[in-house]
Amino acid sequence: MLFNNQSSNVSSDVIHEGDETVLRVDYEHSFEVPSIEDSESCMADTIDKLLSNKGVTKIVFSQRREYEYDYNQTRLLVEIAKIYSHLIKQKNLFNYSALAMNIQNPVILKDAQEKYAKLQQIIFNTLKKDPIGTYVELKRL
């Protein structure tokens, strides 16, 4: 692979500045522009970092210039991280047997298999990358 946009090129630190706890993420050595709005990998990496660093009140990405997410924006991201963490801990609610209530009926079984695969994909893969898209997909189910 010629260009590696993975988060391995990204380092981060948590810094306390007065009343704020700032997650500073250095994208200087990454080819990816740090934007949670435009980059699924940046969004997923940020959610992972928020799960690892509790109490963050502001996020700053640096790459030639600084991209800052204020308290309100950070709170939304922290809430998404909390939802993701809660769902991961409650995996048993989304297992196959929980969705297939009547597996004797072949029509219900087929539908349950499709819904199970879709739900697994949405919750455990898409949520961290695209929370708005996840919401839309869940509403469609």
Percent helix, as a range, is 40-55%
Count of DSSP H/I helices: 5
Mean pLDDT: 86
Please write the string of helix (H) and strand (E) elements.
Answer: EEHEEHHHH
Q: What shape does the CA trace take? A: elongated
What is the first-to-last residue Cα distance?
36 Å
How much of the sequence is in beta strands? 15-25%
Radius of gyration: 18 Å
> Structurally, how many domains make up the residues?
2
Tell me how many strands there are.
Answer: 4
Decide which structural class fits the backbone. alpha+beta
**Strand count, sense and closure of the main sheet?**
4 strands, mixed
Strand line-up of the largest beta sheet: 1-2-3-4
The unreliable regions are 1-7
